[in-house]
């Protein structure tokens, strides 16, 4: 069965259940069931590949024991088992002493998961769909998770909240390619959503891996944190299917809830790559975790302060998606931008056009690339153009990774030497930006500005044209009447 059809079939079954209210709950239900199916398929693999592997789950809680048999538990028996035995035991794994790393992963996923379904019969039908149609030990079926993931994100969008944690694949791929993480470097996404940056990084690093030890280092150096339970669950599942068997470094929590002063040198990382939530407001008290100069309740600003703090001195580098509002905003934003120029090398801002995040948001966005340990001399701007014939992006015509080839060719390697001004690229000195009160909203000087004229003059011109049209209509009417009268006279 096609993935789209599989998810639709499952959702149609769930719509008959009185306990599941809306797309978000249906998706959450699908995700924890798929996670357990994936974990079971992975355990079968680990039993062959890991010497002495022992499941952290009691035998009766393993998917194969209660879910695999299509004629197995159903109705009230299944519902009672899931609500009163499966969920309580899996939630305990998050905090119980002596739990293996594999068990901690399961506990982290189920810490805030819920079974919304009230009908055990319908739940059995859903389980049978998942069990019969996807084998995550099959390499071809494993790749299908990407399709499941995309379908789930599309459905989340219709539920109204996918934009909170979704970054288009083309953008994540471009940012990872430009930062070029190396094996052994520590990388963090402090607002990782469903794990798009992390999975791109994993695939990027896998191409560098030679020995099995390389993959182990990769696993320990990829870090992510996500505040919301559903995207965190998706991120855990996603990175597992990209080869991180024990993603204990993908934590469920709010990175901003820890006081900035409590982060020590060992918490610093080589690379931060992220699309922090913007337009949001943090809960009361979160701002008190930051020094006075950064205190604001605006989420993106607090994340920027955290990112700048967590990068390693001299070697740290970052790529961050931010809205236009950060570029021209004042107050805390001015403080952050001044420090970006004085204590970092803010070397490049890629200005993305409207529609890149369509249909999640129409807000204009930018990618800021900066390095710690050097002051900014010039900021290069690159305005990403639409393909020929496009006026905007949409779900049917999204931004593609191939479109970023123009930026990659212009980038001029890791040293960025040999960059040239073009119709898309220009640079502005740090001194000029400081004189603008650190306003980074610098427009492309090569764009031909259309002079639409004075509004009052345009209105008068419109009225004159309208009157001329009216006069022409009246004249035509008179001529027609004359012609009709002549016809009658003849």
Question: Summarize this, please?
Answer:
With 490 residues, the protein is an alpha/beta fold.
What attributes does this structure have?
single chain; 490 residues; alpha/beta; Ferritin; Rossmann fold; nine-stranded mixed beta sheet; 17 helices; 9 strands; 47% helix
Structural class call reads alpha/beta
Strand order of the largest sheet: 3-2-1-4-5-7-6-8-9
Any idea how many domains? 3
CATH fold topology of the largest domain: Rossmann fold
How many DSSP H or I helices? 17
Q: Based on DSSP secondary structure assignment, what is the total number of beta strands?
A: 9
- Globular, elongated, flat, extended or rod-shaped: what is the shape? globular
Question: Biggest sheet, in brief?
Answer: 9 strands, mixed
Instruction: Give the N-to-C terminal Cα separation.
Output: 78 Å
| Structural Rg | 28 Å
CATH architecture descriptor name of the largest domain: 3-Layer(aba) Sandwich
Overall average residue pLDDT:
86
Relevant CATH superfamily of the largest domain: Vaccinia Virus protein VP39
Q: Strand-and-helix sequence, N→C?
A: HHHHHHHHEHHEHEEHEHHEEEHEHH
Helix content: 40-55%
Portion in strands: 5-15%
Low-confidence stretches: none
Output the CATH class name of the largest domain: Alpha Beta
